[in-house]
Amino acid sequence: MNQDALAYDAALRIVLEHSSALPTQACPLAACLDRVLAAPIVSEAALPPFDNSAMDGFALRGDATVPAGTELAIEGEQAAGDGIACARDGAWEIMTGARIPDGLDRVIPVEQVERSATGARIKLLADVGPGQNVRSAGSDVAHGETVLAAGTLLRAQQLALLAALGVAEVPVAARPRVAVVCTGRELVDDPAQALSPGQIRNSNGPFLAARLPLAGADVVHQETVGDDAAAFAAALRRGLDAGANVIVTSGAVSMGRYDFVPQALERRGARTLFHKVAIRPGKPLLFARLPGNVLLFGLPGNPIAVAVGLRFFVEPALRVMLGMPRERPCRVPLLRAYEKKPRLRFFLKSRLHIDAQGRLAVEVLDGQESYRIRPLAHANAWAAIPADVDALPAGAMVDVHGPGHLEFPLPCRSDA
Ligand SMILES: Nc1nc2c(c(=O)[nH]1)N[C@H]1C(S)=C(S)[C@@H](COP(=O)(O)OP(=O)(O)OC[C@H]3O[C@@H](n4cnc5c(N)ncnc54)[C@H](O)[C@@H]3O)O[C@H]1N2
Ligand code: MOO
């Protein structure tokens, strides 16, 4: 039945083989959020940069444990931001984060000392061992250590580390440039325009334009054309002129009289690498390469075929361009038994739940037909069921993917 349709894994392999990493750019740290690191970060500094106190208290020294009951004169004070200080005997009043005066090696918290009436001396109320309450230089990051690998997505937590290390310019992968072309004479772009009989509103265009930036790409051109090969070719040209690395089209790749995309691409000198994949939805998906190494994904027009084509074909290619490793799904038990047709891999609009005990389960939503957008709006994840599986009992483990490759699936509460 699917002799002419490629297995998903084989089709994905072809996509990945034809995708390559984009050039590296130097990005100022403040602009790096959500960019992908293009080279490992090797620390040129130590963190902390100097031995400092973990507590507000008193810094002192000793050969071994300094016992409770010891009395010491207060020699000086060291606050965060104070520079080098040299200590002799005695104790230094010290604040959290302050540099430990040279010669001292431990800190006793202020709660564990008793001050003399004059305030000039302290008595220890607890033993203090060497290194106690000292955050030593390099204990978090040593100089020369690799702290972030190439391919790391830079979120706030990575930016914190880069900022602490004083990395001013970060090598990041260029963002893939994507042109979006929707086809179909039935489509209306302007939400304020009344529909004539037979017309529908374009939902694939807004969906792709919203999703692609979340997947790490820039939409550099977007337009809608009728079922017209010449208009389509002109739209492709404008996408290429805008510097697109990738063109995503929707519609006109199936069997209908107006499904002109495959032929139009051939006439433009594109090399079609596959057309039709054994998946549902999105089976008529087409992948081609245009002169100049531009990848073209011809997504079938049904809205869920577009969503699946983007998530499971375009996004893996974007990951290669961004220098990211292949994605791995999580494995989650099915909330309810699920039956499907064999021989096709199914990508299912799903909702990840968290129950009262904090356990995860995935619900395959009703309304899987590829024209139904409403369940997509209630989905927070995709479940993927392999081609050779036809029936799964409740509790069977299935692959679950987030709504986008940079988004971990976020569960909702079962009672929500
Ligand atoms: N005889 C056959 N007919 C169809 C087959 C088949 O194998 N044999 N495959 C079906 C499958 S599966 C899909 S998916 C669609 C794909 O069709 P096309 O890629 O040619 O897409 P269109 O015909 O242009 O549109 C399909 C459907 O989607 C609506 N659409 C298109 N663009 C948009 C948009 N931007 N926003 C919202 N909706 C859109 C369009 O109006 C159609 O209803 O073919 C099946 N048929
Ligand atoms: O692939 Mo189509 O989206 O099944 O209707």
Automatic annotation (TrEMBL):
Its EC number is 2.10.1.1. Residues 179-320 form the MoaB/Mog domain. The keyword Magnesium applies. PROSITE patterns: MOCF_BIOSYNTHESIS_2 (PS01079). Keywords: Magnesium, Metal-binding, Molybdenum, Molybdenum cofactor biosynthesis, Transferase. It is an enzyme of class 2 (transferase). Pathway: Cofactor biosynthesis; molybdopterin biosynthesis. Its cofactor is Mg(2+). It comes from the Bacteria. It holds the Pfam family MoeA_C. It catalyses: adenylyl-molybdopterin + molybdate = Mo-molybdopterin + AMP + H(+). Belongs to the MoeA family. Catalyzes the insertion of molybdate into adenylated molybdopterin with the concomitant release of AMP. PANTHER family: GEPHYRIN (PTHR10192:SF5), MOLYBDOPTERIN BIOSYNTHESIS PROTEIN (PTHR10192). This is Molybdopterin molybdenumtransferase. It comes from Dyella jejuensis.
